Structure formats: structure tokens, C-alpha cells
Amino acid sequence: MTTEPRIYVADLAAYNSGYLHGVWIDASADVDDIQEQINVMLAASPVPDAEEYAIHDYEGFDGYRLGEYEGIDTAHEIACFIEEFPEFGSGLLNQFSSIEEARKAAEEDYCGCYESLADYVQELTEETTEIPQSIAYYIDYEAMARDMELNGDVFTIEVGYRQVHVFWNR
Q1: Digit-coded pLDDT (tens) for 100-146
Q2: What is the CATH architecture of 6-106?
Q3: Domain range 110-168, CATH class
């Protein structure tokens, strides 16, 4: 398996006639190039006059579930988004109902990657508030982080052990 987003486009006429005929395509390639590869695949079909196709498989979408009848434009846009934000792109797409919302969160609401949400809350608090040394040890950043998440102020995408991407939830 590869980390490069690829789609397997199948010839539906061949598929319905009992043949497996299709091609793996780089989903982040130019849409016109993708369409050209599909046209070449359909022209080489074992079934005459093949013209319909569907995405029957995919890889490199990092946990995002691409639909079988997802349009080529949409598959391309999703692949490009995941390549642009490789650490959390698929997580954002799973979080939101549209690429536009996911892009807005990535570009406007991203706070960074931390070991935990509590680490982010501590950094935010210490940067915005002067904390007297006498009470610094009594601040419960874990509780503050939990409250921020429960209140819907922030959301996180955990991508690995001690790798949490933090976003404002606006």
C-alpha cells in the first residue's frame, strides 16, 4: 500500500459482464489527466462501447472513506486536500461535512500539534495571563482542557501517541 492517494477506476460494462477491467490512477493528478486515463481504460475494454465507470477501490486516503460513485472532481479535491494537510487532512474531512469546512478549519482554526490538549491549554494560559508563581502549581490544565472540549470550544484530532492536533471550534 502507498501513502499517495490513488483510486481504482473500474469499467462498469466489463464488470457487469464478469470481467475485471480498470486502472489505478493518482487521484491528485490533474483532473484532465485522470479523465484521459479513464478514457484510455474504457477504450481498451473487453466489452464494446464501454462508457460508464466507478471508483471500486482506493488507497492513501488515510482513513477517509471515499464513496464508490464519488465524482472524479471530488475524489481529486479530497486527494489534494489530504496531500496538502497530510498529518490531519483525513481527520478533518471525517469531522466536517464538506471540504470547504475542513479547509476553513485547517487554515483559520488550527492551533498546532501538542502532546495533549492540556499542553495546549497550558501554553495558551501562560501566554495570555500573568500567573503568580505562588499559584502556578495549583492550576489544573487537564480539567481546563476537558472543559474546553466539553463546551465545544475546541476539538482535537489524535494522529499518534502524544500527537494531538488542536482546532478552535467556531
Answers
A1: 999 999 999 999 999 999 999 999 999 999 999 999 999 999 999 99
A2: Roll (3.10)
A3: mainly alpha
